[in-house]
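#help-structures

NK: newbie question. if I give both the sequence and a SMILES, will the prediction place the ligand too? trying with VHF
OV: yes, paste both and it writes out the complex. here, I ran yours:
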Amino acid sequence: MTSAERAGGATPAWRRIVIKVGTSSLTDERGRIYPPLLWALARGVERLQRATRGKVVLVSSGAGAAGREQLRLSLPLTVPDKQAAAAVGQTLLMLEWARAFAPQPVAQLLLTAADIQDRERYVNAKNTLLASLKLGALPVINENDSVATSELRFGDNDTLSAWVAHLVGADVLVILTDVPGLYDADPRTHPDAKRLDTVEDVGAVMHLAGSEGTKRGTGGMVTKLRAAALATGAGTETLIIGGGGAALEALAEGELWGTRLLAQAPIAARKSWLARQPTRGALEIDAGALAALRAGRSLLPRGVTAVAGDFAFGDAVAVTHGGVRVGQGLCNYSSHALAAIRGRHTREIVGVLGYKDYDEVIHRDNLVLTP
Ligand SMILES: Nc1ncnc2c1ncn2[C@@H]1O[C@H](COP(=O)(O)OP(=O)(O)O)[C@@H](O)[C@H]1O
Ligand SMILES: N[C@@H](CCC(=O)OP(=O)(O)O)C(=O)O
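OV: that's the protein plus ligand as structure tokens.
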């Protein structure tokens, strides 16, 4: 690494740091867990914690690789074999992390996408994480591979790490892999590829990711960029770096061995979050209302011509015109209340419902229009 490849600076002021470590950063070329790599990472994490006085949450892959090694399994594996390998490997992995971080305690959390989708489990996961950090433990998170199949899966730990960053309100998401950043083509197959130092809009670089990862990893650069889109869209800066523990030590000194993907501004971040919320119903609006929304105004009951679905106050709903989706937003009235006030003037709301919490059905700050 030459000095020209490094972007130097002061120690960053991060309070919460999520670091995702891929299988490729923990294993040797034969795909076996290589403890010196893991121990060097632990030293890097400690250095980063000391320098920033921030708290680190680790998302660690490697259970599958560790389990395959102990069970002497060779590829390709059936899904149950993969799950058994992850179940065996997870204990080995955690044992090694616990040794490497001692005396700091480590807290194991195994999550699936279902834990994020279900409100109660989401809150429980968040509480466990925040309490572990408060008590001085270092959370080490992996996907719960033994129960997560198809639609319940994150599928890759890059995506999981973006959700963890969201759960803990991280200032930065660090994705550590075996290449020092995002290149304009896969550097494995394009030796002349050039690295991008800073990315302002993840959407604009998504096409640069080759479809394949390493044989050891899952997803390659595509899933890292998707995770970066999620995280930066929610306001969390994302770094894709390579170089193992030494790269974390450099980061503690303000040196970046990779690519910085900038967080979106709060309003843009909110809109991108809004656009990702699952909708529970739809509001059909007339042409006048559509023109008002496009002019940056809020949706009033008068412009709503039909209501579909069963939703509550605060739920996300689609907005349609002529049956075509034109946007979505958070609704200030339940489907039941809206069915009664649609097409009415705002001054009529109290008369119809007996109360009026809002003039707007969807406030413009809670609305995102389809481009
Ligand atoms: N544009 C790109 N820039 C950098 N790496 C890329 C790019 N496109 C594809 N890759 C590949 O992504 C790989 C990293 O992904 P992966 O093997 O899944 O690692 P991990 O185990 O760390 O998640 C790199 O080794 C590289 O070959
Ligand atoms: N949960 C799996 C890791 C899945 C994954 O995303 O792997 P990687 O691309 O190496 O981060 C395991 O522990 O083997």
